[in-house]
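Two records follow; treat each independently.
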Amino acid sequence: MRSVAWLSLLAILPTTSVAYADEGAAQVADPELPTGPLAPLTLEAAQPVMRTKAFESYAAQNPAGTGAGAPAPAFNLITEDQLAAPSTSFPYVEWHGYFRFRADAFSNLDLNTEGTSPILPPVEALLGRSNVQNNPVEVPDENGKQVDLSKYADKAAELLGGANVRLRLRPIFHLTEDVRVHLEMNILDNVVMGSTPDGYDSNNLDLVRTDLPLVGFSGTQEPPTESNSGKTSVAVTQAYGEVKTFIGSLRLGRMASQWGLGILANGGGNYSSITEQRLSYRGGALAGHSCLDCDYGDYVDRAMFVTRVPGFYLALGWDYNVAGPTTQKSIDYFGQGADLSQDDDVTSYVVSLFSRPLQPADVAERNRLLKELRAPAFDYGLYYVYREQGLSSEAGAIEGTNGVDNALLDDTWIARGAQANIMDLWFRYTSEPRAMERIRFEFEAAAIKGSIDNAGPESNTPAKPRDIDQLGVAMEFDYSKGAMAAGFNAGYASPRTIEKCDPASPAGCSQISAFAVKDEWQISDREPNLTNFRFDRNYFIDMIMFREVIGAVTNAYYVNPYFSFDFLAKQNDILGARLDVITATAVDSELTPSGEGFYGVETDAALYYREPRYSADLSFGYYMPGAAFNGKTGRERLDSVAAIYEGRDGFSSTYGTDVTASNAWTVQSKFNWAF
């Protein structure tokens, strides 16, 4: 911790205007541009104001001479831009954020296989089965009579859906020209509409209001709390301070981590005053906010310093990834906790060297290069992280005597001996060869290499040393001309490495049934190296296959061509449609539920409407699963699904017959207001 204390000394150095760090990992934020609402100012409307202010300014700058023939100072002309510019005084708050409303319906996400998709069908489909453990078809009422639930059972039920909202506030507190505090809050974050009725307690369903004996009679919604929804009404995701010095910019606190296309580090949508056109990005962008459809986010506790070197930006960071047990106690909410050990910390050292337009002069030069000279532009960067951990504690916060409970020290600490080298290369080519024509190619490759001395879940198990060797690659290509745009996306994510075994051996040979991201799994004894790369869940290219069923891009090759067209465009209002086709196959087919490699084909169609600060989308996705999701005789079902179905209708954890996966579809609507 002390090794970063020197960074705080930069805060007392003289300040000047230089670039400051971006929302993401080792990127630099956009320079401060004029912000705040400006009323339209025509030349005719401005004339009286111009004459009055010009005269006042002239009188102030040209006082009458003290004697005859005294020379008057030179007259300083006031421009229209100066008159229209808003006047500000420090401190002031710059507000940004958005409100989104999403309603969606999903059909058959379980693929009708009862074990190859990690998503369960609706509850109605699980009712009505014989020998249902802990959930019989008939239950006794208060008079001892049996109440039949079978009338609510529907084995063919497939529809899941609902609506949710989020209000994100992203204020920037300008204390001086070079000192800022940044804050990000999510209000009612992804709260399902109708999920917090008055009198409802998810932890104890018997706790209802005395005047509201049945939740069904609730007429209002309570604010989300830990009791009724497992989350609070307001969640703070970012809070950090920033100061610009004559040698660079310093940021301290909790901030989003974003790099390149976002397959490795993805902040889940941030505000930037410099927008970068990206037609192939499914999350959408509006009024400076990226990925309004993202749900997750990579937030790090970081100390970061960014400076300009000839031709590049250099960023140095120190991340506090995991502190381990502390002396913080729940009964002492306002007390200051202390880290009990330095060896159990997960610490990352970040170094990044990159080139991209960040300051107003950079943006002006880029626009001239693309739009006047019609020359191509190149952006690129190298991102490196070294991460390490000695001990690992499974105890969490410790509230014993003096902050340490000696009874916990023996069994809850594991000697991990983990270290990893994370490298990411990013490149972008942009060209506007003619008016209303644009070409973009962007590429990112991320590799993680390292080792763990003991990857076991407990300290009393034999050590499980493992090497780490993971690779992920993504590319995006866009071409737009006028109202038409087309593109092609592709990517690769390395799979798990599983050693072959002999089923006839005395130890046997069990199938590695855990799959994807939403299924539970642990490191297997047959897994000599940790090679499974998973794209960040905020980087999505589809609506069902990867985003819902698999959970993220992993163990896959994928391709995604698309086409879009704006039917109507009037100034800032746009009405258009887009068509995507996504197909993928497994890198190692043995790791899929059926042992086959083809994941299937998905077709997505969207109708969209855009304004500068409002957007609306209506999308339809249809997924035809491939043989990878079929149930195959003798193959095991996913562990998370088998645990639910166990004991129902003579259910077995392995397939007794072949089952073919059936198609799934979704309809989604999204409405966004941004500021």
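The next record belongs to a different protein.
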Amino acid sequence: MNKANSNSLARFFSKNSIVAKPGFNRWLVPPASIAIHLCIGSVYAWSIFNIPLTRELGVVAPSSGDWDFKSVVSIFSVAIVFLGLAAATAGKWLEKVGPRTVGMLAALCWGGGFLIGSIGIKYHQLWLIYFGYGVIGGCGLGLGYVSPVSTLIRWFPDRRGMAAGMAIMGFGGGAIIAAPLKSKLIAHFAELPKYLGNVNEVNLFNEAGKRFAEIAGKKVEVVVSSVSDMASLPLKGPEGVYAVGTGNTGVFEAFVTLGIVYFVVMLLASLSYKIPELNWKPKGWTPPDEKKSEKKLITSKSVHIDKAIRTPQFYQLWIMLCFNVTAGIAVIGVAKTMIIEIFGSNLSSVVTASFAATYVLMISVFNMSGRFIWASVSDYIGRKRTYSIFFIMGFILYLSIPIIAIQAGTSTNLIWLIFFYISTMIIFTMYGGGFATIPAYLADLFGSFHVGGIHGRLLTAWSTAGILGPVLISYLRESSINKAIAEIAAKVDPVVFQNKFGEPISQLNKLVEAKTVSLSKLIEIAPPETVDPTSGLYNTTMYTMAALLAIALIVNLLVKKVNSKYYHEE
């Protein structure tokens, strides 16, 4: 590339090249922001991938070589961690280079992350999925997330909450498109493994806890699928014995397709970004009087990004965002799995794989709508009151879920499913609302000039929550499962156990580790009066999340106006 072309390209990507001319319609800016956030918001539909990735080799059931649930959920955590880290790093850079450059790089990272991750799936290398989707893709999430926020807040100083809501609305709504798209792509490319017959027709034996079959004189590793295993698949087939490594979950092809689509859409959207001239104001609007805004914690002054992180208000908002996100993200990461486990035993005819996928879709609908509605409401009642509502209502709703789960474990009444649906959807509106309201809260406290950079640094709270939420729910769920397996195994007839799994009950831990024994398979041979404990696997998690919201409420009530010593003139 010659020097002239290089200079021309630099000018094209520069911040000065995207300053809007007088008379530019500011309503042309939100579509680009929403388009980018719809693409990166597909991360909220990650739970669609959970079950297929834990069966990548076995397909119809987890095999001994398949990744465990905790490892798969942690990919989502890594992506959120790098979202926050990239946003914190890019926030100040964004103020220098402008949203077009940042948006272009976001497209490259998010689309490329899917493609790198697909290689990891193809060759069964978990670290490549972590690196591709988690690290590279996570950076794309962070870059794509911050690029529109400060831009829209500057275009809409008269409606900061609504502007932030529009900017971030697409992120919450990404799964509306992604959940059914991912499910359809997986179903389209999926193939059942080779069927060897039902359990009684195949000569099965165990080695080191793994299951094998002898076929034409050859030893073949197999999985034994149950009715519940087959019910969670997009493809239908008979329960029984299947050869490991002979089918396809369809996730590899889904990753490739999504990576290409997201790159193209985000690239086109980033090219249409425009920013207002310095000191631009909407026609007919005047900034609010400082004294009248005192009670709402709104300032017309500015706090530099480097000074903002020295204030107690920055860390108060950091804690609030972290705990609000931890509570919500813990549930979002396992949403599809959770609703099946809570209601699958007594309402299996209703809570099917398709129903669970729709549930993930509806999470996105309420997450997205909450971002716009709550952020807009905060323009009228104030950010502090809005956050107090989030924490009080969230505390009550999280405590209600264990009560619902207990009833769901012993009842076939649909009312408990309805209560669960309503409770969680309200939670997700407030989860999304918290994200959309925080940029306006920051602009109120620190001014709008550096809000993009300050917001980026505050998103390290999201990184922390991205680890804390999924780790908590995975650890607490796994502890509950292990406890339940031990309790159920103690009730099972040892002879029946050995006939079912090919080894004595004394080898329980080894069989669990090899994925030959699972809670659902134990329930099948448990005494008839045994209550299935699966619906209560998330109760401890819900109590923990309620406690976090109670702490966040106290922190929010302590927020005051920033000390004037931190202000400076732009």
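Discussion point: The chain has one domain: 22-190+248-279+302-491+530-564. How would you locate this feature using only the token line?
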